[in-house]
Amino acid sequence: MKYHLVSGGCGFVGRNMVKRLYNTTEDTIIFIDNLSVGTHPSTWLDAPWRKKEGVMEVYGEDERLIFLHQDFRHFLRNVIDVPNFVRDNYAPDFERFSDVFHFAAIVGGRATIEGDPMKVALDLSIDAEFFYWVTRQKPDRVLYPSSSAAYPIDLQTEGDAIALAETDINFKKMGEPDMTYGWSKLTGEYLAKIAAEHYDLSVTCIRPFSGYGEDQDLTYPIPAIAARIARREDPVEVWGTGRQGRDFVHIDDVIDCILYAMDRVKDGSAINIGRGELLSFIEIIETLCDIEGYNPQIKQLLDKPVGVFSRYSNMDYVNNELGWTASISVREGMGRVLAAQKKAQGIG
Q1: CA 145 to CA 130: how far, in whole Å?
Q2: Strand pairing of 267-273 and 65-69?
Q3: Cys-Cys crosslink for 342: which of 75, 131, 230, 310, Cβ 3.0 to 4.6 Å?
Q4: What CA–CA distance (Å, rounded) separates 244 from 300?
Q5: CATH code given to domain 3-212+249-273
Q6: What DSSP letter does each residue of 213-242 carry, written as one string?
Q7: Which pTM was predicted?
């Protein structure tokens, strides 16, 4: 049996990865989260609770889901001898992790990125300790999620917006990424390359664009907008002018691409995950309203933070060279989010 580790396993991307691994493999998944942002697994795991011992909770009839409620950095600092630690405390016959998915991070919507940039900068600490740890533990494969925020902001302006290609980040000719979040993710990419090149590790690095999904919390724009439309508000509020655009990709496609890429990208280089389609928030509102069947006014909230004007991916390398393409259309994905919000609000 294989053992996988998912840090930040109760956050948006982490919990979707935990569920995917549990539903599609017979492996054991150990996932860690301090629940500062993530939600307790009892609220989203479709598997029965089995037992609790200290910080550990075990789920599933087969007990393949092991949740550790603690700060990931505490785990990294204290679990030096991983095989013996896990064997003694959680699972027999364990030698080393097969896949390690590192989603632990200080995350949030635009209000967090711009409102508390030094808090977000703690990601530098988390990632540095993580990469030091994996170079000692030597798992079979490592996934490091960077971000589209790592791209230079001067390529994302209203007058000079381009589809961002992987080659637009060059460590020998740097542009300025998006605040402390972008800087931390860019630094993580550099560490990923070093881990692969100097320590002979298989490392896959991804740059997801604007991921969204049915279980994303309301601090993010898509579920927040969908919640307003589920209530059939009129007007519907949008931060900024609403003309700012993003590349929206459903979480199921993000997980698909991660697992696909880990078989093919092992040298620490980064790939985009998106649809390669630029859509404004006004266009998203119009799509959701069309699905819902009403036509409200749009109220612009010009005092709200909005970030860069335009951010979308060039997917040529991933589509043509790696052979992966997103399968969930924006309309289908938005419809799923709207349905989830209506269900959450008890709207028929």
Answers
A1: 12
A2: unpaired
A3: 230
A4: 12
A5: 3.40.50.720
A6: -TT--TTSHHHHHHHHHHTT-SSEEEEBTS
A7: 0.92
Q: If pLDDT is split at 50, 70 and 90, which confidence band does 87 have?
A: low
Rounded to whole angstroms, the Cα distance separating 233 from 183 reads 37
* Residue 255 · residue 215 · CB < 8 Å: no
User: Do residues 42 and 49 touch, judged by C-beta distance below 8 A?
Assistant: yes
> DSSP secondary structure string, 27-70?
-EEEEEE--SSS--GGGT--S-EEEEETTEEEESTT--EEEEES
Residues of the chain with CATH 3.90.25.10: 221-246+277-344
- Please list the residue range(s) of the chain that carry CATH number 3.40.50.720: 3-212+249-273
DSSP string, 166-232: GGG--TTS----SHHHHHHHHHHHHHHHHHHHHH---EEEEEE-EEE-TT--TTSHHHHHHHHHHTT
Beta-carbon contacts of residue 343 (< 8 Å; ≥ 6 apart): none
Q: Say whether the peptide bond before residue 48 is cis (omega within 30 degrees of 0).
A: no
CB-based contact 164:212 (threshold 8 Å): no
* DSSP label of 346: T
Supply the pLDDT for residue 91: 55
Is the distance from CB of 119 to CB of 112 less than 8 angstroms? yes
* Residue 346 backbone zone (phi > 0: left; psi -120 to 50: alpha; other: beta): left
Fold classified for 221-246+277-344: UDP-galactose 4-epimerase; domain 1 (3.90.25)
Judge contact between 56 and 66, C-beta under 8 A: yes
**Mean pLDDT on 284-304:** 95
Q: What is the pLDDT of residues 231-278, one digit of tens each?
A: 999 999 999 999 999 999 999 999 999 999 999 999 999 999 999 999
Determine the Cα–Cα distance for residues 38 and 57; give it in Å rounded to an integer.
16
Is residue 21 predicted with pLDDT exceeding 70? yes
